[in-house]
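Batch job 17 of 40 flagged for manual review because the log was empty.
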Amino acid sequence: MSNQKQTTQRLAVGDFSRALRGEIKLAVGPSLQRSWDITLRTLPLMLSALALIIIVNVLLQSLFDQWIPVDLEQPNPRNQVMQAMLGMLIMAPLVAYLSYAGLLNARDQKPTWQHWQLVLSFAPRVLAATAIQAGLMMVIVLLIMVLPTLLGVPLALTMALLLVALLYLQLSLMLAIPLVLDQRLSATRACIGSWLVVTKVMAPLLALYSIMLIIVFISALPMMLGLLLSIPMLFNLTGVVYDQLIGPNLPPDLAKVDS
């Protein structure tokens, strides 16, 4: 019984000031265990939100196929970019709710559908943070894809550099949306704050999410059914990481709420 209590116990709460200085160590094993534990007891709501995201995404793709179609045989780069950017922005509030629910789960608070109101009230900042990430992704893609032409870099190396750069960007800004919703930061402050914190723990964070992605891949093998557990666990893991690093308090210079 004592072992069960230990596995479900909340991990140490972080402090943003210390995280900025690199004084907080990210626990890989306990983070995965904690994420799994809270996933098992918060699964119904997480799956409901995930189902809504899937439905909206299917409807959205159907509209895209009519309005801005992409021919697989002769792809239109402009339409591909428009589909990707519009999809990312439209889905942003829905994904933000799952991220916030993961944070509440990590704090042993019960997420409810009423938290949609909070997410929607901060939708402009969520969209702005998502737009910043999407814009940076486009810049990275454009810069790296010209390497074969300008410098004669082999295509295989170019694609490897692109993958690494996009992975780094995704990880470094992973806490931006939780910072917007939890600490009421502006999109710019949230992105900067996320980058400053994550760069201090990039190595263990990369190991943590590499393991998590392996879990997601394996869970998709038996008829995709395992994704019903691994995808909610992925969002809960982000909440666990946020709670360990940032906790409830921000440094004075980042704690100001932008009007």
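Reviewer: the log was empty due to a logging misconfiguration, but the result itself is present. Residues 41-245 form one domain. Unflagging and moving on to job 18.
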